[in-house]
User: What shape does this take?
Amino acid sequence: PGGFIIIGLMIAAFNLIGEYQDKSKEAKQGSEA
Assistant: This one.
């Protein structure tokens, strides 16, 4: 079960990073426009 918890945390962290990158990309596009 320990490995399953670690995998869940990795997936959650990956999703948070992806959302942060998407927001940063939108912010860059808005400043360039």
Notes: The CA atoms of residues 12 and 20 lie 12 Å apart.
